[in-house]
Amino acid sequence: MDQLLNDFSPGLFFMLLIILLVLIFLMVKFAWKPIMNALNEREDGIKSALEEAENARKEMQNLQADNERLLQEARAERDAMLKEAREIKEKIVADAKEQSIIEGDKIIAQAQATIESEKNAAVADIKNQVANLSVQIAEKVIKEQLSNNDKQLKLVEDMVGDIKLN
């Protein structure tokens, strides 16, 4: 350090000082503004990137909220459609049951009518058969009774007597 103080030259000092000032001047004139501009641009770029990131985050939150709302609306619509489908199904089942009861009643009524008409036809047929059998029996009995003259006279007298009484 002593040697540095012993070698001190005021001319060299001023020369170095002038070079330093010129260098600072040149730096301020030519390098300072571009460096400051680059720093400002970078700071502005970072701020705008942060703002864009914040806007994107807000937009994502809005989209998520919209998606949730749409999902809830879709669920509500699905539930409404399912409820409506259940109601339609129940109505169709009830209508089908009612229709089957009506058809069943019609079939039963038709069967009863058919049975009644068949029964009446059977009764009429039986009456006809009984009448035919009765006529045949009466015919045989009358033939038997009318086979002889005494029986014929007696029968005619009984019939005439019955006619006079009536």
Automatic annotation (TrEMBL):
Q: How does it sit in the membrane?
A: Single-pass membrane protein
Transmembrane segment boundaries: 12-32
* Main localization (coarse): membrane
What Pfam families does the record tag this protein with? ATP-synt_B
**One example GO MF annotation:** proton-transporting ATP synthase activity, rotational mechanism
Which InterPro entries does this entry report, sorted A to Z?
ATP_synth_B-like_membr_sf, ATP_synth_b/b'su_bac/chlpt, ATP_synth_F0_bsu_bac, ATP_synthase_B_chain
Sorted alphabetically, the Gene Ontology cellular component annotations on this record are:
endomembrane system; plasma membrane; proton-transporting ATP synthase complex
* Coiled-coil segments: 36-91
Which branch of life, at top level?
A: Bacteria
What does the UniProt keyword field contain?
Answer: ATP synthesis, Cell inner membrane, Cell membrane, CF(0), Coiled coil, Hydrogen ion transport, Ion transport, Membrane, Transmembrane, Transmembrane helix, Transport
| CDD domains reported in the protein's UniProt record | ATP-synt_Fo_b (cd06503)
Q: Where in the cell is it found?
A: Cell inner membrane; Endomembrane system
Q: HAMAP family of this UniProt entry?
A: ATP_synth_b_bprime
The family this protein is said to belong to: Belongs to the ATPase B chain family.
Entry function: Component of the F(0) channel, it forms part of the peripheral stalk, linking F(1) to F(0). The b'-subunit is a diverged and duplicated form of b found in plants and photosynthetic bacteria. F(1)F(0) ATP synthase produces ATP from ADP in the presence of a proton or sodium gradient. F-type ATPases consist of two structural domains, F(1) containing the extramembraneous catalytic core and F(0) containing the membrane proton channel, linked together by a central stalk and a peripheral stalk. During catalysis, ATP synthesis in the catalytic domain of F(1) is coupled via a rotary mechanism of the central stalk subunits to proton translocation.
Q: How does it assemble?
A: F-type ATPases have 2 components, F(1) - the catalytic core - and F(0) - the membrane proton channel. F(1) has five subunits: alpha(3), beta(3), gamma(1), delta(1), epsilon(1). F(0) has four main subunits: a(1), b(2) and c(10-14). The alpha and beta chains form an alternating ring which encloses part of the gamma chain. F(1) is attached to F(0) by a central stalk formed by the gamma and epsilon chains, while a peripheral stalk is formed by the delta and b chains. F-type ATPases have 2 components, F(1) - the catalytic core - and F(0) - the membrane proton channel. F(1) has five subunits: alpha(3), beta(3), gamma(1), delta(1), epsilon(1). F(0) has three main subunits: a(1), b(2) and c(10-14). The alpha and beta chains form an alternating ring which encloses part of the gamma chain. F(1) is attached to F(0) by a central stalk formed by the gamma and epsilon chains, while a peripheral stalk is formed by the delta and b chains.
Name under which the protein is recorded: ATP synthase subunit b
